[in-house]
Amino acid sequence: MNENNRKQIPDTLLLEERARHVLDAIIGMADEDHGYIPFFGANLMEQPAFLTHGDWDYGSSHGRLIDALILARHMTGEEKGRDIESKYRENFLGFFKEDGLSYRLKNPKAPWEPTANLIDQRAVILALTSWYMSTGDRKIKQVADKHVAALKRIAIKERDVWYYPASEYTVNGWPSANAVQLRLAPDPAAFSGRLIMPLLKYYELTGNSDALELCQYFTSMIINRSGVFNPDGSFNDALAYRSGHFHTRIGTLDALARYAMFTKDASIIHFVKKSYDWALTWCTSFGWTPGDIHDQAFEHETCSLVDLISTGITLAQSGYTEYWGIVERFLRNHLTESQLLNLDWVVDSDSKEQDDVGLKSFFKVAERTRGAFAGYSAPNDFCCDSNGGRGHTSDLQTCCIGSGTRGLFMGWSNTITEENGTVSVNFLLNRGSRWLDVSSHLPHEGRIELDIHRNVPRLLVRIPEWAGYAKVMVRREQGDTVITQAGSDPSIWVKQRFLVLGEAREGEKITITFPLSQRQTVEKAVGEEFITKWRGDDVIHLSPAGMHHPFYNNRQIFDKAPLRDGQYRRLDKEFYW
């Protein structure tokens, strides 16, 4: 970033700053005593706290973290931890066998087997796609092409659907020929549905026809044959369908929505919207999601929230503009509140004496996990220790660290978008771009400032639904010329919530003000109720308060937004997911 861009900016949420924090956690999770394999989980409530390895350490964790590193570096320009990243990439490429699939390694201290897990393969193609998109490395494309060909080769193919009949593929093929013959296809959403998203992006980047074909047949299987989603859009909560597991279901909806946009298939968008709206009834307005509909219902995964964010963005891009506001609430609240920045409450050890190398470490856990996202959180607490469900299990998961980073990126990259000369400000968050900078004074003041860097043929800015119309004011300054306009003018609104500012000129400063909403809602989460106080789209108090590391109740609000010296990242060329 150019240091000349430094200026006084509001001291409010800046997603690229959060990405710098999560980089520390991604790097800190590396286990230097175990081949730099990242730890998968952490228990922060124990004294001392500890990190643990698990069977997700391989294709899943490495894939998620490599993807996250690429996205976080794109957001920040930060170079720290390149040595650890190179270890992750080296490990990751070492998991592939000649058949093109990524296999888990055998840990002599643990029972998991060295198979090619189908959930892992989704993280693998995700990382390969981001890796190739960011570097254009032809060697990585060769690995990815071979991987996609393998995913196609092992799929069971019927007339109109393809599927995987088990969670594990072995070097000798599928574990059970009988499972294939009976068309069992356990958990199609986890094994096939979520694969559609990275496969589609890989096709868009490379034109790989195998990737597109997999998307086509997996989509048909999910919608027409799988039974994952009930006719009313609800999740099938049968035990065979993982009790309606939210992460894999909403992740599948994200994939279907993207495929629908690509193919211009309105029927699929309708299918996604119906199910997404049902899912929202199980979530809080600030973004807490259940883990599933039964035993894991109390355990929110950051992964599920990021799926909600991504699906909501695609629905908004498809014309359902009301979802921009829903997603902004998720970004402002449970995503960023779930990021671990204060670790004063964590007790850890400065010694490795108690470590069991390859399984567990107590060494500097707080320092190594700062910036991570919650693995299982309660609506009001980083740690979930509910009387219901499974009680306390763990507090961090590497998959959620990777997903949380992706959530930051999805918010950041969609705050300002451009299409055919129209620039849209979709989220009222701090963000720099080659067209303009957005400085957000929310939640302190209903005030947004736009500094225009280059001529924009047509500029749109979304105004929150709670701000109304009549008291929205626009002030445009260029040189000595000042023009004001009131939101009560009906001719300046489109898409329900967007102000049409028309042409914006280089050097112009536009200030938009509107009244802030202060309100109270009752949010329900798996039978529990939470009294929620809002200021605009931000939760400023939640009752009852959490017991271990409470959420929301330490947010400070001022009459005027505090300012600080800072800068926004501006890129001449960005990539998008």
TrEMBL record:
InterPro entries: 6-hairpin_glycosidase_sf (IPR008928). This is Uncharacterized protein. It comes from the Bacteria. It comes from Paenibacillus foliorum. One of its GO terms (biological process) is carbohydrate metabolic process.
